[in-house]
Amino acid sequence: MASAITxxxxxxxxxxxxxxxxxxxxxAFTPQAAGGLEIDLKSRVATYYGESIRTQAEQxxxxxxxxxxxxxxxxxxxxxFVISARIEAAVRKSGLPKSSRALSEQMxxxxxxxxxxxxxxxxxxxxxxxxxxxxxxxxxxxAIILDLEDSVHASEKxxxxxxxxxxxxxxxxxxxxxxxxxxxxxxxxxxxEEIVPEQPDLILIPKVECPEQIIDAAQAIAKVCDSQxxxxxxxxxxxxxxxxxxxxxxxxSKNVVALTIGLEDYTADLGVVKTMEGSESLYARTxxxxxxxAARIQAIDSVFGDVGDMDGLARWGQQSRALGxxxxxxxxxxxxxxxxxxxxxxxxxxxxxxxxxxxxxxAQQRGLGVVSLGSKMIDPPVVNRALKLVNTARLMGLIAAxxxxx
Length: 406
Hints:
Blueprint: E1 12-15, E2 24-31, E3 37-43, H1 46-63, E4 69-76, H2 80-93, E5 121-126, E6 143-147, H3 157-170, E7 177-181, H4 187-195, E8 202-205, H5 211-224, E9 232-237, H6 240-244, H7 246-250, E10 258-261, H8 263-270, H9 282-294, E11 298-300, H10 310-323, E12 328-330, H11 335-342, H12 347-365, E13 371-373, E14 376-378, H13 380-395
Parallel strand pairs: 3-4, 5-6, 5-12, 6-7, 7-8, 8-9, 9-10, 10-11
Antiparallel strand pairs: 1-2, 2-4, 13-14
């Protein structure tokens, strides 16, 4: 171990502590040439869990091949997967090879995510903040995003990558689709190397401007993980060039299931102000939506940044659905029910669609090629739209699934 460490006198740190910190810990690792494992622990819960924290720390160090060191831990109620991640990050900063891992306990994987599942809401969780992970699924978004990009300071990206990897192994997010937003390529390729073996359901790729970036990401995923379980891709288009290449990006890999847009970066690229009305981004949003529909994938809108304006969020969501989008991002749990309501079909829409579907099924049973409802003939595109709306309403739990005939 001593030969692998760059400077034995240096101390390497990871994590955070303090009165405003919870569910995390700060670790300071100082490698030594001799003396065994010296662990100094300060914890809010030392009376109850001090011994188990100390035992886990020793186990992690030994897994990483550390025989001699000083390890200082300031614990603020961290769970085992966080403890492992913070210690591993500090130790690996000292010069251990990339292959060194101290993986946390692995829960059974949830069922694989269907390609066309509901993606009305996706809740962003800062990848360096474990306090947000544990209860995220209780808010019932369609997806959670463990974010390694904009919400993580540059100095914390390495440690956040390990923390997110452990969260994928050890945290249950309920029925949520488990997404990870990696960093902009090429840094994002290092994220993929760490997290893909834990088989997230979907990877968000930020600031995509050309199809080659999707190809690079898809190849990196295939190189790291040869599982038959799919890992879907959602490119984020955040520039004028990305929007102009939307269809090529959407069709760059068979695993692309949706396109989405980042309006803050897009409007910055245009040099215009982002407004509540969104007129400055209407072209980009409709261009993206049309490219997604042409590629037979989902179009997902951007986040709504004002968490205090629920009326504005509702209006934005309703407009977004009217344009053809199937969901949007959210940055606060309070936005989730508003978004779900905005993307839900109305009672009158469902009622009309059910009548059209019933007429279509009746025509099919009678061997008729023409569908009629009352005195009106129903064109095939109208039937297809009604069938899709009814299926979506069932997925949302707005109407009951049809009874199976025995």
